[in-house]
Design a protein that fits this description.
This protein is an alpha+beta fold. It folds into two domains: 140 residues, 3-Layer(aba) Sandwich (Rossmann fold); 154 residues, Tumour Suppressor Smad4 (Sandwich). It is built from nine helices and 15 strands. The longest helix has 14 residues.
Length: 305
Amino acid sequence: MTERKALLILHGKQALNEEVRAAVGAKREEGWQLEVRVTWEAHDAQRFVSEALAAGHRKIIAGGGDGTLREIAEALVLADAQYTGELSLVLLPMGTANDFARAAGVPMQAKAALDLLDLAPREVDMGDVNGRLFLNMATGGFGSQVTANTSEDLKKVLGGAAYLFTGLSRFSELRAAYGELTGPDFHWRGDLLALGIGNGRQAGGGHVLCPTALVDDGLLDISILPAPQEVVGTLKGLLEGGLGIDNMFIRARLPWVELKSTRGLDINLDGEPLSGESLRFSIRPGVLRIHLPAHSHLLSEAQGT
């Protein structure tokens, strides 16, 4: 029988969350040995992963948003070579957007999310950009600027709608970004409004950029929204209409893609800013084990059910 032992790494903002406290207590009553660590400053999550593995933990719970999830997932993948596939991850969505968790069908209620501990983990892919790993999506163009410039105070008041509010208020700053993307049998270059390179499907508080992405197919989904002449009107439709201009996207599914921009392009990597003139994105197949719902839409086998 698998040892019923796990460590929860909880974002510091959720330290006093009574729902989380009650959910942890309920799992302990069910026989789970749950320890909790609360982050305080940058890189705490990575340090807690290292300490947990040294202490014998093999199941880690990421309690936070997409950024916390990315950091913990990366730490587990980098450490996994020492543990021959013993490590696994559970998502406890506690962020503003929780884009990966929502697309994966992970419950938003703390106890229901922790109940995924009782399911077998599934092997999933992670994206790699110049050696940095991501689980959900890399975004570029105006959407990434909106995400980066949405204030924490606004998130507290409006939740995921904060991203929409920020985007609608920043039309005067709108400009297209130039990029050139090259991959196997694929080449595109030009001005773009938005770019999504996804292992998951959505970013920026629910904007679905890569609607058919899967986390276990060994491929990255590429979505490009070219910049037309009526730039502001198109973006307004993008933000207000829930990406209702889907037919304007250029899409591909590739094991790797190189992105070049002589002017530089700002990228948002699961909530973490990244920029550069030359970036190579690739997929690392099956390097992470996550406890996901059996019929998660991000799993290949769920597409046939």
